[in-house]
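Worked example (supplementary).
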Amino acid sequence: MFLMKSSEKQSILIVDDSRTNIMALAELLKDEWAIKIANNGATALRIAESKSPPDLILLDVMMPEMDGYEVCKRLKESPITKDIPVIFVTAMDSLENEEFGLSLGAIDYITKPISPPIVKARVRNHLELKKYRDILKESSRIDGLTGISNRRRFDEALSAEWRRALRYGSSLSLIMIDIDHFKNYNDSYGHLGGDECLRQVAQSLHSIPKRPLDLVARYGGEEFACLLPETEFTWALKIAEDLRSNVLALQLPHKSSPLSEQVTVSLGLTTLIPQKGQEAQFIIEEADRALYTAKEAGRNQVSWSNSKESSS
Ligand code: GH3
Ligand code: MG
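After joint prediction of all chains, the assembly is encoded as:
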């Protein structure tokens, strides 16, 4: 369910300071793939780091201000963009240039004047490989038991969103969610019963956030995390309440809970704008602290880290 839809067109970013070159490549590739263009290195980097990055970059070497080698170097240095394959398209056809380009992490090197069928074939091959790498990467980021994102995916998303929020000064919200009295649940319904409960709770949590970058992941054991980029406190609180009531609406019987006849969850929310010098770990600690407060205050409720109040 999280894998790329096969109907989705892969996209190519063409980077060249010459409009004529861009048009020639775009014309050649536009029927099969979605095309993005940039006429300088800075724009290329911005598009590569955006929320919908390209699947492949065709990169001219000689450009004013930032040349293609520098663009490639920066792409490969950043965890957000390092996996986007880069092909140099250049008039510099010496072996030294090609060797240097490949040493920077480019996957291929095409010399101008280009042969249209060869460019198309190489692009197709690299995009095909990219598609399978994406599928592999995606499946290694899914929790085997519940089918939602796993801890690895969460850690990566948090690191990327933390960086983005730091750069743009935007709000980042995190909700930590923990099933109440789950040890008792296992004791009453067995470990397999507990597993089924985890699956149902995970699916119910997963169905709440709606924006493409919102993420619900299994953080570990019976704890889940919901990461909401560019989300203010008020909206995040609404989401947290929706998560809580959606789990309650499952009406999963919990006969050994001292609290309720149904399975419930406690939630800790924090919203912050990352500051220089802070680590991404900080937002987890804050949300964990809020979760602890929700547990202490009686469970089946939302607490937030910068306030002693809670809602239920
Ligand atoms: P609290 O309300 O304070 O959160 O109490 P709790 O019982 O939920 O918390 P505690 O940390 O004491 O117990 C968590 C339980 O979750 C213990 C562990 O066996 C169970 N658990 C963790 N992972 C899994 C899993 O994958 N499957 C099952 N069935 N149980 C699991
Ligand atoms: Mg628990």
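Two points are worth noting when inspecting this output. The chain is about 45% helix and 20% strand. The radius of gyration is 24 Å.
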